[in-house]
Amino acid sequence: QLKLEDYKDRLKKGEALNQDQLEAVEKYDEVVHNLEFAKELQKTFSGLSQDLLKAQRKAQRRESLLKLEAEKKKLRTILQVQYVLQNFTQEHVQKDFKGGVNGAIYLPSKELDYLIGFAKLTCPERNENL
Prior knowledge:
This protein is mostly helical. Helices cover 78% and strands 0% of the residues. Keywords: Coiled coil.
């Protein structure tokens, strides 16, 4: 653009320009228009790029929150299962299941022993002093 402005100034001062320079001066307005269009296009692309980055960050945050909620749900389920299994290690619960009383279904001793063994393997001992 600076070169074209120089040609334009030289032409105004009456200097002779070669054919290529004269054609370039004639296209000065077209070049300026194209440069302005390119600047606007660059601004548009920049804005779109920023919008895309924001959307990506938002999606990542949403994905992180969903993963966190899924992990919480898994942990809750594990804790609930552990709680149920730990109850099988208590004598009064075992008696209820052996007799099928107090709302418990009847479990044969062998099945109850399996549950008690599984509870001991999967549930860490709690220190009640802590």
